[in-house]
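Pasting two entries for a bug report.
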Amino acid sequence: MQTQPVSTQPVSTQPVSTHPQSLTLRPRRSKWQQWIVPPARFAAALKDAIAWIAFAVALRLAMRWLIVALPLLWPIAALIAMVPALSAAYLASRFPRLSLVLGYRSLLILLGLMLGGKL
């Protein structure tokens, strides 16, 4: 049995590629995580809150129109009203670090649905 000679030279620790992007490792974010990240500045957060509330108000008004136009579709409207809470619960279990953001946005959506019901 022959043995291979063992090299005494140190193993190179140089990166294989010298491309600048290969030297930095960024954690990959899923599309959900990129979409859920809250804005950093106050003005952007205020715009974000207004947008979520306005969307929920519009959704509630559309659901009311749907129920008035076609009363047989009330189960679909009820499911649409439950989707924000169900999706927040699912995403909170998938991404626990974002559960505070999800709770905040769920609160904004519920506030918008309530305001839309009062209009």
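Entry 2 (this is the one that rendered wrong in the viewer):
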Amino acid sequence: MATKPTRMQQQASEQLAQALVLVTEAARLDGGDRLGRDELREIAERLARISRAFGLDEVVGKAVDRRARSLEMPSSAAELLTLLDSDVSPLETLLLTDDEFKGLVERMLEELGDL
């Protein structure tokens, strides 16, 4: 049985998520393609190993949530990207341009509306 994360562990996980957001934002701003899927996965795995209370999926989920909030997307956007099937993994959504990220969320919202 896992113990509940402490407040400091929660804060640490938020900082790890922010680090992941900042790394991917820097890659997008630089305009290069030097940070690919494999490199991003390696960075994310290394960041997640820092935490004793949170794993890769939780850190990525928090990072996607931060990105969605920064783009003023609905609060459900990050959850949609982590739960619904897509050809882009939640981690890879952090590499998308702002317009691509918003477009993906909008397409998923439309798909849900069609159910």
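Dev reply: Rendering is fixed now. As a check, the viewer should reflect this: The first helix runs from residue 7 to 30.
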